[in-house]
UniProtKB/TrEMBL annotation:
This is Phosphatidylethanolamine-binding protein. It comes from Enterococcus wangshanyuanii. InterPro entries: PEBP (IPR008914), PEBP-like_sf (IPR036610), YbhB_YbcL/LppC-like (IPR005247).
Length: 169
């Protein structure tokens, strides 16, 4: 299985997908989500789950990765640019913008893509997609631990894509 994204150019995600987008006010959560395409999934795949995270965020999160996006029950092989904002054919979990240590945005407002905003240096972002043999009993607003426990017995294959995002201007 493999994944690709037209949102990457020369190893970097385009500005529109994070805090360097001209449409994002400083300190606001970017919501214009990255596109990605899945190829060569196992034939018996029923759904996909995905996670986009930043392990370089440890310097600004007291040692933890930043979760930008979690998806479950995706039944198609392509997610379009900015699809997170009004997704109706997959469910999304809470991202790290919900975290209380940064002021804690409402759960409803953080159950979607929360874009890239590296404050200290260029960060590497990892998108991992899992092919699953089932649809999950999970609803919008799920937490990462719930997602993790639900997918672990259903994984058929996985693929990872990495790209950088440049430090905030």
């Amino acid at each position: 299985m493999k994944i690709s994204s037209t949102g990457l150019k020369d190893g970097y995600f385009l500005d529109i997908f994070g805090g360097n987008s001209p449409s994002v006010e400083q300190g606001d959560m970017p919501t214009y989500s990255i596109p990605f395409k899945i190829e060569d999934a196992p034939e018996d795949t029923v759904s996909f789950a995905a996670i986009l995270y930043d392990v370089d965020a440890f310097a600004v999160t007291n040692g933890f990765p930043w979760i930008h996006w979690t998806i479950a029950n995706l039944t198609k092989k392509e997610v379009k640019e900015n699809e997170s904002i009004d997704a109706v054919d997959f469910v999304q979990g809470v991202n790290s913008w919900h975290s209380q240590f940064i002021g804690g945005k409402e759960k409803k407002l953080t159950s979607m893509y929360g874009g890239m905003t590296p404050p200290d240096q260029d960060h590497v972002y990892t998108l991992t997609v899992f092919a699953l043999d089932a649809l999950l009993d999970i609803e919008n607003g799920f937490m990462l631990n719930e997602w993790h426990h639900k997918i672990k017995e259903h994984i058929l294959a996985s693929a990872t894509l990495e790209g950088k995002y440049r430090k905030l201007d």
